[in-house]
């Protein structure tokens, strides 16, 4: 009921905004409102972007030159990855991964818990992507027509409108830098957050004490002791019998001395579970519980009273989503398929190499890219269904 009421207020709000925009003719002032979206264009943001472009102009130029070179690699890599995944979906399903369109619909395509992280990640993605295109253009002497903000359903973002006529007359090297700018900026953001995740303990230590608190279970193998006893993915193993388990190393050390068919009492975050160990298929003299995808679980104790114990996990989840979204879009955006940046990037690349029949090659690559992307999407939905994140 609360979801229906919330959705009703949401739709009424969009209807009111649409009527107000029509009544006051706000489109003449740069605000265009349509079904579940609005776009506000202005030239006032251009000056801010121009200032950013002037700052460290040489550094920007080097960054976008490297980005153009990396763009070639991303173009080749995304085609290879889609081909490889399509092959695996057909012949090696267990090695394949689902390729699906990320639609942030809470409760439908993703959980309410992940929804805020996804929205923040998408905002950072769009702003960095569009700002990079704008700065690269200005550094190359291509003016901006306008810039602005938008809201599509629940996804906010920024946009820039380049002077395409000037850009199309620019050298091919300029076009390559501009067209690769968005994806190269997204890739840089993803690498920054990957580094932050890899060093998360180091970055959080000044504010929190990290205490090993158990082993997080990622999965329970069907038919094995843990699954039969009721242990599920998401449970945290905190002890076995009278032995405290604080890490994966503790769990391995304990199980190394346990023989098959031994009764054990496993203490988890959800309660106590009784089970009998099973022989390891790879070594019948050793025993296993039947849990998989294990990771160390830690508790964060704040050093300052106003800090929340849950903040580190929320921060790590946010870092992961920013990394995941920016990397995924950086790669897929370089696919040579209209209207993605990879299409115009490929055109500029072919022209710079003096390739004949550029239009034919471009059309062939676009059709091929569409085919392998559609194959990945179709097979993913057919095999895995709609994956809720």
Describe this structure in words.
It is a single chain. The chain is an alpha+beta fold. The chain folds into 3 domains: 2-33; 44-200 and 314-384, no CATH class; 208-302, Roll (Pdz3 Domain). It is 53% helix and 20% strand. Strands 5, 7, 8, 9, 10 and 14 form a 6-stranded antiparallel beta sheet that branches. Strand 7 and strand 8 form a beta hairpin. Helix 3 (57-91) crosses helix 6, helix 4 packs across helix 10 (311-332) and helix 6 (172-198) runs antiparallel to helix 10. The mean pLDDT is 88.
Structural class: alpha+beta
Q: Judging from the principal axes of the Cα atoms, what is the shape? A: globular
Integer tally of domains: 3
So what's the oligomer here? single chain
The proportion of residues in beta strands is 15-25%
Helix content: 40-55%
Number of strands: 14
Largest sheet: 6 strands, antiparallel
Radius of gyration: 26 Å
Core attributes:
alpha+beta, Pdz3 Domain, 3 domains, six-stranded antiparallel β-sheet, four-stranded antiparallel β-sheet, 12 helices
Please sum up the structure shown.
The protein has helices at residues 2-23, 44-54, 57-91, 115-139, 164-169, 172-198, 200-204, 225-229, 248-255, 311-332, 341-352, 358-384; strands at residues 31-34, 37-42, 144-152, 155-162, 208-216, 219-220, 236-240, 243-244, 263-268, 271-276, 278-280, 283-288, 291-292, 295-302. With 389 residues, it is of the alpha+beta class. The protein starts with a helix and ends in a 5-residue tail after the last helix.
Helix and strand layout, with pairings?
Elements: H1 2-23, E1 31-34, E2 37-42, H2 44-54, H3 57-91, H4 115-139, E3 144-152, E4 155-162, H5 164-169, H6 172-198, H7 200-204, E5 208-216, E6 219-220, H8 225-229, E7 236-240, E8 243-244, H9 248-255, E9 263-268, E10 271-276, E11 278-280, E12 283-288, E13 291-292, E14 295-302, H10 311-332, H11 341-352, H12 358-384
Antiparallel strand pairs: 1-2, 2-3, 3-4, 5-7, 5-14, 6-13, 7-8, 7-9, 9-10, 11-12
């Amino acid at each position: 009921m609360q979801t229906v009421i919330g959705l009703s207020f949401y739709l009424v709000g969009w209807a009111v905004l649409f009527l107000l925009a029509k009544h006051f003719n706000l489109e003449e002032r740069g605000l265009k409102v349509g079904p579940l979206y609005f776009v506000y264009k202005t030239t006032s943001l251009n000056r801010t972007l121009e200032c950013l472009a002037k700052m460290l102009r040489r550094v920007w130029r080097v960054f976008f030159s490297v980005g153009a070179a990396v763009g070639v690699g991303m173009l080749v890599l995304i085609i290879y990855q889609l081909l490889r995944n399509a092959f695996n979906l057909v012949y090696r399903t267990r090695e394949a991964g689902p390729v699906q369109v990320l639609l942030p619909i809470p409760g439908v395509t993703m959980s309410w818990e992940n929804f805020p992280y996804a929205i923040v990640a998408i905002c950072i993605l769009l702003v960095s992507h569009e700002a990079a295109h704008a700065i690269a253009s200005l550094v190359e002497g291509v003016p901006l027509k306008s810039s602005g903000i938008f809201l599509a359903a629940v996804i906010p973002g920024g946009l820039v409108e380049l002077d395409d006529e000037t850009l199309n007359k620019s050298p091919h090297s300029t076009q390559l830098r501009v067209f690769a700018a968005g994806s190269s900026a997204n890739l840089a953001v993803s690498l920054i957050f990957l580094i932050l995740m890899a060093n998360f303990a180091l970055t959080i230590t000044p504010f929190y004490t990290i205490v090993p608190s158990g082993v997080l279970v990622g999965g329970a193998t069907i038919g094995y002791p843990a699954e039969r006893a009721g242990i599920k993915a998401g449970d945290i193993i905190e002890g076995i019998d009278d032995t405290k388990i604080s890490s994966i190393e503790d769990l391995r050390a304990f199980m190394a001395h346990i023989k098959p068919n031994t009764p054990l009492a496993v203490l988890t975050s959800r309660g106590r579970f009784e089970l009998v160990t099973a022989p390891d298929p790879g070594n019948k003299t050793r025993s296993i519980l039947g849990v998989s995808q294990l990771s160390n679980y830690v508790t964060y104790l704040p050093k300052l009273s106003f800090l929340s114990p849950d903040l580190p996990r929320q921060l790590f989840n946010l870092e992961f989503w920013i990394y995941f979204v920016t990397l995924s879009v950086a790669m897929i955006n370089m696919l040579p398929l209209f209207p993605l940046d990879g299409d115009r990037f490929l055109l500029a690349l072919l022209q710079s190499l003096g390739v004949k029949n550029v239009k034919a090659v471009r059309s062939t690559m676009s059709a091929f890219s569409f085919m392998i992307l559609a194959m990945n999407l179709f097979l993913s939905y057919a095999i895995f269904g709609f994956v809720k994140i």
